[in-house]
Automatic annotation (TrEMBL):
Protein name as catalogued: protein-serine/threonine phosphatase
Organism, scientific name: Homo sapiens (Human)
Gene3D superfamilies: HAD superfamily/HAD-like
UniProt KW Phosphoprotein keyword: no
Name of the top EC class for this enzyme: hydrolase
Cofactor dependence: Mg(2+)
Active site: 1 (4-aspartylphosphate intermediate), 3 (proton donor)
CDD domains: HAD_FCP1-like (cd07521)
Keywords of the record: Hydrolase, Protein phosphatase
Marked site: Transition state stabilizer: 57, 95
InterPro entries for this protein: Dullard_phosphatase, FCP1_dom, HAD-like_sf, HAD_sf, RNA_Pol_CTD_Phosphatase, TIM50
SUPFAM superfamilies: HAD-like
Reactions performed catalytically: O-phospho-L-seryl-[protein] + H2O = L-seryl-[protein] + phosphate; O-phospho-L-threonyl-[protein] + H2O = L-threonyl-[protein] + phosphate
Entries under NCBIfam families matching the protein: HIF-SF_euk
Length: 196
């Protein structure tokens, strides 16, 4: 996901914007001010070393593509899917992971919106929505979890084990990131991953 997961964007000026992207809407050029989530650079670089990464966003390509160009200086995103690739279902743009052409037992979606992954909740690693908290460490905190995940053969079994061993952390999108905390606790206690 892009918005509120990796970046926050606004049509209103943001004094400390990392990027300003011109976007044409109805014949008028608008400036979109984009803030990068803290630690997004480290997160993307590490994910690119571990996984085949695809940007899948419900945003329009005319906005998201130039933002991705500026955000992904390392070429981490091997493909980009935009709103046109989503399924409009019950008022929401849903990211149908089956469209990736990959074995779903090896696919994870990182997203702040549970509506985006309602077709594949068992593949989701939810994150807190991010707007402008520059002390946020969620992406940095997720790196060890994904390092462990990269050694797993099947994401379903790993996520299922984590949820069953810590049911308090198995909510789809908790307001205080207990899922992420639970996953990281399980990882740090050595319950979920084999040491290679």
């Amino acid at each position: 996901d892009l918005d509120e997961t990796l970046v926050h964007s606004s049509f209103k000026p943001i004094s400390n914007a990392d990027f300003i992207v011109p976007v044409e809407i109805d014949g008028t050029i608008h400036q979109v001010y984009v803030l990068k989530r803290p630690h997004v650079d480290e997160f993307l670089q590490r994910m690119g070393q571990l996984f085949e990464c695809v940007l899948f966003t419900a945003s329009l390509a005319k906005y998201a593509d130039p933002v991705a160009d500026l955000l992904d200086r390392w070429g981490v995103f091997r493909a980009r899917l935009f709103r046109e690739s989503c399924v409009f279902h019950r008022g929401n743009y849903v990211k149908d992971l089956s469209r990736l052409g990959r074995e779903l037992s090896k696919v994870i979606i990182v997203d702040n919106s549970p509506a985006s992954y309602i077709f594949h909740p068992e593949n989701a690693v939810p994150v807190q929505s991010w707007f402008d908290d520059m002390t946020d460490t969620e992406l940095l905190d997720l790196i060890p979890f994904f390092e462990g995940l990269s050694r797993e053969d099947d994401v379903y079994s790993m996520l299922h084990r984590l949820c069953n061993s810590n049911e308090a952390s198995c909510q789809l999108h908790p307001p205080n990131s207990t899922l992420v905390c639970g996953l990281l606790c399980e990882y740090s206690e050595g319950k979920s991953f084999s040491a290679d």
